[in-house]
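Worked example 3 (structure in, sequence out).
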């Protein structure tokens, strides 16, 4: 009798394990569908190898996560408690929880640029709370609907695979699919090893896209086998940068602004929040956004505001008294209250298209001002950058998703309001906010490179020390250095160097 019971026990466990494999295949398909959102959250790779790596990594890594979840949950339960009806119900609930968690992580990544983590918990809660309070009924219905859809899928997949288990066992699909996914897994890591060793950033920039992604690196594997020049690797991955002895190179030939539009833009920079509040009370109808990211060093910020460039170029431009590239008789700028840039007014005209006014003196907008911007300086000595409030007469600016930098204001003024898009794009790193496509940018202040991607800001000094912070809340984010993104940001920062 004991032997018979043992055989019955083994038979049930064997059936459950066989069913579990097919149930896992169904969840792999669901996980692949959900994880498609990660692939579209960032700009896609442009090279053939980058696209290939994206696809094979998506297939293999997502499948591995789903299979690992089965091994850690359903598999041990099937051995310890081999009762089909109960196991299938518990497996459906566990899989629903896992798929819902993956959906939540995908939503957070699309909106914030990083995955679920305890260090980013305050910002994640803030994001979800904002979504819930902005439209509570719709959000609850949508979130609940997703969970119910996932649960329904799990119950259907659980029952169908159990009912048709005998017929499914006859298929060779599982064997071929498993082999294909193993090949994709090996291929993805092989491509990453090659790309990391040869600095193919179109591949390595995808390191942090999928959750729980820890790809093999060239340094650890190739160095172990004496196949890597460590010094060359370190130099290539060096993130040290300085702005000493650089030359600011104006692009040539400079585009002409043939379709110039007459517009007068006033940009007010106040020393204190109270002065800004007084100005707003006297000038009703301005729209605000709290995603204005500015350097805490006032000189660096004002330079960026006027030239549309990071302070990386400030020394070279001020020493040479180089005028803004777009300066002309029709597109003149007047600067008030910025001693370092007073030389600009030597050739500016009284009928200036753009006025930048800084200081404590209360000045009213011109009667014929087409657009108005107003904000106050940040008096924070602890951080290199900080977010503050920007007021604008342009309602569209207040609806921009993501961070806005001072350089974006001048780029928008020249590119959009004055209709000189080509010149703004050719001579500035600031973004025309009407053409903003992604929430990414780079700046430089106090010897620190500032690169942001969605809510994550990476600060890295000339010694290679770095930290990640949340743009909205200012807390530190415990994530590693994203070298590919940083290298791309530095290349963009150095656009106008010889």
């Amino acid at each position: 009798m004991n032997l018979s019971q043992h055989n019955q026990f083994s038979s049930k466990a064997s059936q459950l394990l066989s069913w579990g494999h097919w149930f896992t295949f169904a969840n792999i398909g669901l996980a692949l569908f959900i994880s498609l959102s990660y692939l579209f959250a960032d700009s896609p790779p442009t090279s053939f190898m980058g696209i290939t790596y994206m696809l094979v990594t998506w297939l293999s890594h997502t499948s591995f996560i789903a299979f690992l979840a089965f091994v850690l949950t359903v598999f041990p339960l099937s051995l310890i408690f081999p009762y089909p009806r109960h196991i299938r119900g518990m497996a459906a609930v566990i899989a629903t929880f896992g798929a819902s968690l993956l959906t939540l992580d995908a939503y957070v990544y699309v909106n914030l640029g990083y995955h679920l983590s305890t260090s980013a918990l305050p910002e994640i809660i803030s994001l979800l709370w904002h979504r819930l309070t902005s439209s509570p009924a719709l959000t609850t219905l949508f979130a609940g609907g997703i969970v119910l859809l996932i649960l329904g899928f799990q119950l259907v997949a659980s029952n169908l695979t159990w009912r048709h288990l005998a017929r499914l066992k006859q298929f060779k699909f599982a064997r071929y699919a498993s082999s294909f996914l193993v090949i994709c897994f090996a291929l993805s890591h092989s491509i990453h090893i090659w790309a990391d060793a040869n600095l193919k950033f179109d591949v390595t920039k995808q390191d942090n896209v999928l959750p729980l992604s820890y790809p093999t690196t060239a340094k650890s594997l190739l160095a172990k086998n004496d196949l890597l020049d460590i010094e060359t690797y370190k130099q290539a991955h060096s993130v040290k940068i300085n702005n000493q002895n650089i030359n600011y190179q104006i692009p040539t030939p400079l585009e002409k602004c043939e379709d110039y539009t007459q517009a007068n833009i006033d940009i007010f920079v106040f020393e204190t929040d109270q002065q800004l509040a007084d100005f707003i009370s006297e000038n009703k109808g301005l729209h605000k956004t709290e995603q204005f990211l500015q350097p805490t060093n006032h000189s660096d910020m004002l330079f960026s505001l006027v030239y549309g460039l990071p302070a990386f170029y400030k020394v070279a431009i001020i020493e040479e008294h180089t005028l803004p590239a777009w300066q002309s008789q029709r597109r003149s700028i007047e600067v008030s209250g910025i001693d370092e840039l007073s030389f600009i007014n030597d050739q500016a005209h009284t009928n200036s298209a753009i006025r930048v006014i800084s200081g404590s003196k209360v000045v009213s907008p011109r009667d014929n001002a087409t657009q108005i911007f107003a904000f106050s300086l940040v008096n924070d000595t602890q951080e290199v950058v900080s977010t503050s409030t920007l007021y604008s007469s342009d309602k569209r600016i207040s609806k921009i998703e993501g961070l806005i930098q001072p350089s974006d204001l001048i780029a928008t003024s020249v590119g959009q309001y004055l209709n000189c898009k080509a010149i703004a794009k050719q001579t500035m790193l600031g973004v025309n906010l009407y053409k903003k496509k992604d929430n990414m940018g780079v700046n430089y202040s106090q010897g620190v490179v500032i690169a942001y991607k969605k809510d994550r800001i990476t600060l890295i000094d000339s010694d290679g020390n770095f930290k990640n912070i949340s743009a909205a809340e200012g807390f530190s984010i415990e994530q590693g250095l994203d070298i590919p993104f940083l290298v791309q940001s530095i290349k963009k920062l150095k656009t106008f160097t010889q």
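Notes: The first helix runs from residue 2 to 41. Residues 265-493 form one domain.
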